[in-house]
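User: Hey, quick favor. My workstation is busy. Could you predict this chain's structure for me?
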Amino acid sequence: MKYLLKCLPVFILGVILFVPSALAADHTVNRVGGSTRYDTAVLAAKQSWSEAKTAIIVGGTAYSDAIAAAPLAYQKNAPLLYTNKDQLSAGTKKGLIDLKTKNVIIVGGTPAVSKNTENQIANLGISVKRLSGSTRYATAEKVANAMTSSSTALVVNGFVDADGMAAISYASSKKYPILFTNDSTLNGSTSNAIKSLGIKNTIVIGGTKSISSSLYNKLPNPSRVSANNRYDLSVKLANKTSLSTGYTFVTNGFKEADSIVGGVLSSKQGRVHVLTNGDNLSKEVRTYIGSKSINGFTVIGKSSSLSDNVASQLKNPVVGKTVFIDPGHGSQDSGATGYGLLEKNVNLDIATRLNNKLYSAGALTVMSRTGDTFDSLEERVNKGAKAKADIFISVHANANDNSSANGTETYYDTTYQSANSLRLAQNIQPKMVSAIGTRDRGVKTAGFYVIKYSKMPSVLLETGFVTSPIDSNILKQSSKKDSLAAGITQGVSSYFR
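Assistant: No problem, here it is.
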């Protein structure tokens, strides 16, 4: 390292700092998923109902019917269950029996739930009522008429399931009916519902591609909630509720059956429900989790719906935390040199690997540089502050005139966040050493600019000596640098526990 460029004079503390205990354990993640959508809906129902006097039944692929029915299910204190069209699904039949259901409301016409299926439900000694219209718009109107009166309604494109799924918890918690339209025309059934129900305010869900501006302007006292994508939309709607985030329901935004059930169950429990990518936790949801400090989750759907990778990300204490990664030096400032290595390149390579691994773990990551560019020390600090980072990690390699000097060490400063910076250093240092087998040079204090003036917990990592034949050989190996990044990631996760 070039000390004149990146540090203030090194000093050593003569006192022992208090080290706080670990913040928290791993997050809790509960999965509710059956072998079919029918079984998943029943399992979800049993999370909140030991008995359900009333249940809502919809066709297994009739998602518009299910979306319209969801706020009614909330008002009726009823679970929402699915069935096959032509016969009552075995799992649903057992669920109705187990829940001791006495009344069923079928939402949707016979093309979705046949008369034969209706009769099979009735043969269980259950009273059956059907709410249906000739179109999805008309069915939504019937459902709205069956709800407690409200002067406000949600208006959703009936052919854009994502908008409706994202809106279920919001609509239910506010006791608003969900009415359908297409992208440009106000359907007659929806118009009739607005008039007959005395709707004075409408909330349009989705952007102008879902519902055009011209249609929007025809609605009574309209407002709009739109977003960049379905994940962002679910977060924006969650922020408009007062629902609890003590733990949160998470579903795959492209799995309608699971997401609708998740919306109904979260409403019943007064909890937030958000949509994510099924394979990798969406950035919008990570940000929401971090902003609300959520540490408990229920995921709806088996692993083929919402992957084990997402469940692991939710369980990791680093999820939603913003980590600022600063690869030292860059461009004209090559840093230390030795054995064919330029420190700036080593730093960037390790930092990039660290960035990828932390993001894969569920963190939000920001890098001071992603290429061979240069920022002043002050600019690096300012970037970390602008990112509102939870922690700041500066990645470096060391140098010494004596080639026998070798090993890995971690520095922190005592100006800001002294105890937490020490704890961060103590979590990362042994993981680095273990990952690449270098000499453990320990945790030390120093007034390096980027950790002295960063106000969040901050550390500077000296991964190894480029001037050492031992360490330089390690720092040349891709596998070793990958292991090093993995070790740092483990240390960061441990810090947030």
